[in-house]
Amino acid sequence: MMPAGADQATLGPYFLLAGMLISLANAMIGRGIRGRFAVRWLTLCLMTWVAWGVNSAL
Question: Given CB 3.0 to 4.6 Å as the disulfide criterion, which of 7, 30, 39, 54 pairs with 35?
Answer without folding.
Answer: 39
